[in-house]
Write a structure and sequence with these properties.
The chain starts with a strand and ends with a strand. It has a 4-stranded mixed sheet, covered by helices on one side. It has a 4-stranded mixed sheet with strand order 5-8-7-6, with helices on one face. It has about 120 residues and is an alpha/beta fold. It is about 20% helix and about 40% strand.
Length: about 120
């Protein structure tokens, strides 16, 4: 159902460096851009993450209660992505762990404070 989620940034070059490295660990790469938003994905027609500045040209801010979740194929990948995020300067919002019988996840904030989860469902 989800086509893409947009994460705002106030330092696009720094954000792109972060997401190139982080999302590359999930097999994603920059698919296209429009000089304001840069879209990452694994294949055409699959859900994507867009990184960029707000349309109104005002400062990007984080929404309280807003979070994007990234699907991982296994628990080891959750651990790897979380570790990579920490290495790249993200802030911890919850180390990897089993949250429910069918949910293993980790939480962090990117360099602009956007909250993300990486998880294995099932």
């Amino acid at each position: 159902m989800l086509a893409y989620v947009t994460l705002g940034s106030n330092d696009i070059p720094k954000a792109l460096e972060f997401y190139d490295a982080l999302l590359g660990e999930l097999g994603a790469k920059r698919m296209f851009d429009n000089d304001r938003l840069y879209f990452y994905g694994v294949a055409p027609g699959q859900p994507m993450v867009a990184v960029g500045g707000p349309f109104d040209a005002q400062a990007a801010t984080c929404g309280n209660g807003v979070m994007a979740a990234l699907a991982a194929p296994d628990k080891e990948t959750v651990d790897k992505i979380y570790a990579k995020a920490m290495e790249l300067g993200a802030s911890d919002e919850g180390e990897p762990g089993q949250r429910m019988p069918i949910f293993y996840g980790a939480y962090f904030r990117d360099l602009d404070g956007n909250k993300l989860c990486v998880c294995k469902l099932g």
